[in-house]
Amino acid sequence: AIDFVVGQRDDELWGRLIDWALGSPDTTGALLDCIGGYVDPLLLVRRIPRGMRVERLRDRLRAIIADYRTQTSLREGCNAILRSDCRHLLAKLYDGTRRVLPYVYVNRPGGGGEAGQWSRWGAALGRSGGG
């Protein structure tokens, strides 16, 4: 049932599976063992009826927390790599643009309805040049 619900990627099916699993401590425990990577485990933990004795609940919750920390660490690492790649590609694009367009002409609008003034910006020099 878990493999089917994972394959469907449907929150409503997860809700039905959780409802079904709460009928027995054994199925609740089995679902706790594998729910962490797919949906928020709190959806199941908060709905466990008072007085239900789930075997190894503390160990299962520790495993869920450890998995969560691992996933968080992986996401942070991936985000750092993506940021680094973006900076590298932006620098590469900027360098290529500077070589192709040594100067860029910018029209700065004049004040009070006057005609704008054209300025030459030296991309290769990184500063504005004369008119």
TrEMBL record:
Which species is the source of this protein? Tetrabaena socialis
- Judging by the UniProt lineage, the source's domain of life is Eukaryota
What is the protein name given in its UniProt record? Vacuolar protein sorting-associated protein 41
Q: Name one GO cellular component term.
A: HOPS complex
Output the Pfam families linked to this UniProt entry: TPR_Vps41
Please give a single GO biological process term from the UniProt record.
protein targeting to vacuole
